[in-house]
Write a structure and sequence with these properties.
heterodimer; A: about 160 residues; alpha+beta; 2 domains; four-stranded antiparallel beta sheet; 5 helices; 6 strands; B: about 400 residues; Aspartate Aminotransferase, domain 1; seven-stranded mixed beta sheet; 12 strands
Chain lengths: ~160, ~400
């Protein structure tokens, strides 16, 4: 992967001139390349990684395994895209194995998520079955540990 | 009753007369201060890869708590010979050409003690790792330093060595990629050095602890050059590339006769390297590509950042090609290396190491390690920029 993307994926707030130093490029070129990636749709947005457990939010997240029937034209894509458009669905993946789609669904309460599954998801044409699991606690998101205090035990000067 | 007991006179004269490491002195000053950003740390800021730590815990649970063979676990020696063949280009036999040691530091000490008769001269290039001169002296050798210069990227040439050669010269020590300069040697440079060692019948000790950490071209080891392996002791370890400094694990590869001689000293002084650390090393070798590549990519970004920042300040700094040190020249500011480092520490709370800690020819330079987080590097470079502006 392009070094520029790796840097942004680690820290999207990295300043342009700092990225320029890391890559040995003029800052204007860094700007141009980021704009290009945005235009191409490679970069689709920038978000903060939150430790939501600290925020005491009225929110539940469910991981839902969905079995679907692929359609004659469009295969899995048509049904997957249809499901993905619901704002409750935060992430959606096509999977290998015993089910087809894996969804991360958010709602304010358990009842709300249950309602989404029974009233919106399950009745969709092509959805054969669902299996819903509620998330209890987050240990790591997007490669970032949620409960680690970073300490440096190294000596301050060493050979 | 006689007068007070004078212990100083009882201390071995060589030990007594060797000064403490300049790094140690600096460390003592830094530890008294608060909010210091240290670019003085010669070890990775990364944690040891988790799979290595996790498997070490498992090894402890299983009871891997006993002595190992003096040479070290055979399965580790086998894995190491494969790793060295693949990455450094020389084939060694696991049975009698590899010795596992307590870090490269012990391996270096063993090699020198196994080879030196009192008065034998050892050529080594400066600026260099702080222990070289002392280790040679402890082994009753005569250290003969060969200064390298920023003008040619702190490389070593045959001409520099010829100048310092005498009939008593027995050993040539090499350390590339280099601490503290970040210099490397390419194949052509090394061929010249290898030819010199062969013609002058020298034994070569090559410390390649930073071998994995090169940023613009892959590392070339002198042992990959035909004809040199037979007279070379190759030293390497896990501290830098795998961020395993505290495990204290290194190894030496070389001709069986020399490894046997080193093993004798090791056997009677150290017995064996830590069994747990040896298991950890075996696990580290299981997936070096991913662990090491990620760290190297991050070091490269930091290296670029520091080099660019010095350039913007108008401070000359040859591009470090390996290890994780930049070695900029501070001569233009009219201060000695030590005074520059002390003033920077007191005024801006940034710790760098005076070049003279690595040999007299390090005067006019300071070592800045980039084995520290990008955020700290950014802040440190901003402070150094403010400091140098005010000096100009």
């Amino acid at each position: 992967m392009d070094e520029l993307l790796k840097i942004l994926q680690t820290n999207a707030l990295e300043k342009r001139e700092d990225i320029a130093r890391m890559l040995g490029l003029p800052p204007a070129q860094v700007d141009a390349r980021i704009a290009d990636y945005e235009k191409q749709g490679v970069i689709r947005g920038y978000q903060a990684i939150l430790n939501e457990d600290q925020l005491d939010l009225d929110k539940v997240t469910a991981v839902i395994e969905v079995k679907v029937t692929p359609q004659r034209e469009g295969g899995f894509d048509t049904i997957a895209e249809r499901i993905s458009r619901f704002p409750e669905v935060r992430s959606a993946y096509l999977m290998s194995g015993t089910y087809d789609l894996l969804l991360f669904v958010e709602g304010r309460t358990l009842r709300e998520v249950a309602g989404f599954v029974s009233e919106r998801l399950s009745p969709l044409e092509g959805v054969l079955s669902t299996s819903t699991h509620f998330m209890l606690k987050t240990y790591k998101r997007f490669g970032v540990l949620m409960h680690e205090e970073k300490t440096d035990e190294r000596l301050t000067v060493s050979p | 009753m006689s007068g007070s007991l004078s212990l100083r006179n009882r201390i071995n004269a060589t030990v007594r007369d060797i000064p403490r490491s300049g790094i140690r002195d600096f460390f003592d000053i830094v530890t008294t201060m608060k909010d210091v950003i240290s670019l003085g740390i010669g070890e990775p800021d990364f944690d040891t890869p988790w799979h290595v730590r996790e498997s070490t815990v498992f090894a402890l649970e299983r009871g891997v708590t006993h002595y190992t063979s003096n040479l070290g676990y055979l399965d580790l020696r086998r894995a190491l010979t494969q790793y060295v063949a693949l990455n450094f280009g020389a084939e060694y036999k696991p049975d009698d050409e590899v010795l596992i040691t307590v870090g490269v530091s012990e391996a270096l000490d063993l090699a020198l003690r196994a080879l030196i008769n009192p008065g034998d001269e050892v050529l080594y290039h400066e600026p260099c790792y702080v222990s070289y001169r002392a280790t040679i002296l402890f082994a009753n050798g005569v250290p003969v330093e060969v200064p390298t210069r920023a003008e040619n990227g702190f490389r070593l040439t045959r001409a520099m060595l010829e100048e310092r050669l005498t009939p008593r010269t027995k050993i040539l020590m090499l350390n590339f990629p280099n601490n503290p300069t970040g210099a490397i040697m390419d194949r052509k440079d090394l061929e010249e050095i290898a030819a010199f060692a062969i013609e002058r019948d020298l034994i070569v000790i090559t410390d390649e602890i930073y071998g994995e950490l090169t940023y613009d071209a892959p590392h070339t080891s002198i042992v990959s050059i035909p004809g040199i392996k037979e007279r070379t002791i190759f030293l390497h370890g896990f501290s830098k590339a795998w961020a395993m400094t505290g495990f204290r694990l290194g190894y030496a590869c070389g001709p069986a006769e020399l490894i046997e001689a080193m093993m004798k000293v090791h056997q009677y002084t150290m017995l064996c390297a830590s069994s747990l650390s040896q298991k950890a090393a075996l696990e580290a070798l299981a997936r070096p590509e991913t662990d090491v590549t990620e760290m190297v990519d991050e070091y490269r970004r930091r290296r670029n950042y520091i080099a660019a920042a010095f350039k913007e300040m108008g401070v000359q700094c040859h591009t470090p090609l390996g290890a994780f040190y930049a070695f900029p020249s501070v001569a233009q500011f009219g201060l000695s290396s030590k005074d520059f480092a002390l003033k920077l520490l007191h005024e801006e709370r940034v710790a760098v190491v005076p070049g003279t800690a690595f040999g007299a020819c390090g005067e006019g330079f300071v070592r800045c390690a980039y084995a520290t987080s990008m955020d700290k590097i950014k802040e440190a470079m901003a402070r150094i920029a403010r400091f140098t502006r005010q000096l100009k």
